[in-house]
Design a protein that fits this description.
- This protein is mainly beta and 406 residues long.
- It has two domains: 342 residues, 6 Propeller (Neuraminidase); 34 residues, no CATH class.
- It is built from two helices and 27 strands.
- The protein has a five-stranded mixed β-sheet, with no helix packed on it. A four-stranded antiparallel β-sheet has the order 2-27-26-25, with no helix packed on it.
- The longest helix has 16 residues.
- It is globular and about 55 Å long.
- The N terminus is likely disordered.
């Protein structure tokens, strides 16, 4: 009987340890178990990705993509697309294709210029990288957000499924609020696509096609005013981006980080408004609540309902009040340089200038293990071929920082 009670208490304690919690009040640690070395700098760097030969591709929000050695030597990649650079918009992510070994394909996410601003775009190209030159060839536009327009919070993160057959793409709400809950608009969603950018079989609404209805106006004559124009009929049309067939999850605000864990779980981090940054376990068909609920408050002071009031909506596993402004999310898989961190997650806190280590239980639970004060706004953190870490600073100039054991 005593053994049974002890086992039950252990189970309950374990469950409680992985319960949802607020990590916003966690104090930063100033004693660092690693050394940081600045290798070179960039203008507002956003993402980095390692090639099989150990060199990196690094994007700058202002437009260029660079091929960079671990010693900091740079080659500008030619034939990159034009971008709409303003505020949070610009050149965003660069990602190595699961098929890179056979076709040298990479993916880019960026904000494509438009008449009234810009729109998120997903493209694929072949990287022709030599010793002293680099260029993109066979450039393909795979997906674009329509309509374009003003507003930040683009998202633009990609995670490839563990089997290498599909890609998940985050699309932010563009500061437009309501589209995150509109099934016929891509904003505020995580999309699941084929490697060619098409809706993936198995999506929650794969067989459904969204539609938009526009009014056909009987224009006023010269003697009438515009307010006398009459709707005489409507026209319904379908468009590539106005379909729920692509959508995997909805209700996201600023999904800047997303990655698969070693156990195959998909995780995402996003910014809240005034409070309420989130770490979410992404599961098929779920609605993550924005802008209906949040642990934060609107910038204009208008309150938002707490996620605790809506059991029909998915709650974050970890949230931050006050915010840390997460820049990205990655999982460490090394077994030599930092073997004690194998399977852990890492994200940069831009607002707190911290590097944060996350421990996952493999069953949907997570907790923040460390918040290290590093003195830089960390936009991205990635694992190098030797298991060391590399970080990008969100600044101009922004540092490329190599993280090695003390």
């Amino acid at each position: 009987m005593k053994l049974a009670k002890a086992a039950l208490l252990l189970i309950l304690a374990s469950a409680a340890a992985w319960a949802q919690f607020n990590a916003g009040e966690q104090k930063p640690e100033t004693s660092l178990p690693f050394t940081m070395t600045t290798v070179t700098t960039f203008t507002l760097p956003w993402r980095l990705a390692f090639l099989p030969d150990g060199r990196m591709l690094i994007t700058e929000k202002v437009g260029p993509v660079w091929l960079v050695t671990q010693e900091g030597q740079k080659i500008m990649v030619a034939n990159t697309p034009p971008v709409y650079w303003q505020g949070q918009n610009g050149m965003l992510g660069v990602f190595i294709s699961p098929t890179y070994a056979t076709d040298q394909s990479i993916y880019l996410t960026y904000v494509e210029p438009g008449d009234y601003g810009g729109g998120l775009a997903l493209a694929r190209a072949k990287l022709n990288a030599a010793a002293n030159t680099a260029r993109l060839e066979k450039f393909e536009m795979l997906w674009r957000q329509m309509p374009k327009g003003k507003g930040g919070q683009e998202g633009g993160q990609i995670a490839f499924s563990p089997d290498g057959q599909y890609l998940f793409l985050t699309v932010g709400d563009r500061q437009r609020f309501t589209p995150a809950q509109d099934p016929d608009q891509p904003e505020g969603k995580i999309l699941r696509l084929t490697l060619d950018g098409k809706p993936a079989p198995g999506n929650p609404n794969f067989e459904k096609t969204g539609a938009a209805t526009i009014p056909l106006i009987d224009p006023p004559s010269d003697t009438e005013t515009a307010k006398n124009a009459k709707v005489v009929s409507t026209y319904t049309f379908t468009a590539p981006n106005m379909t729920p067939a692509e959508t995997w999850t909805s209700g996201h605000r600023t999904p800047y980080g997303m990655a698969f864990s070693p156990t195959g779980e998909l995780w995402e981090v996003e910014h809240g408004p005034r409070g309420g940054d989130e770490l979410n376990r992404i599961e098929k068909g779920k609605n993550y609540g924005w802008p209906l609920v949040s642990y934060g408050q609107n910038y204009n002071g208008v309150p938002i309902a707490s996620p605790d009031t809506r059991p029909d909506l998915a709650k974050p596993v970890v949230y931050w009040v006050p915010v840390i402004a997460p820049g990205s999310l990655m999982f460490y898989r090394g077994t030599q340089t930092f073997p004690q961190w194998n399977g852990n997650g890492f994200l940069g806190g831009m607002g707190t200038m911290t590097l944060n280590r996350i421990v996952f239980d493999g069953h949907g639970g997570a907790e923040i293990a460390n918040r290290w004060a590093v003195g830089h706004r960390i936009r991205d953190v990635e694992e190098g071929p030797d298991g060391s870490l590399w970080m990008l600073e969100d600044a101009s100039p922004g540092a490329l920082i190599h993280v090695t054991p003390k």
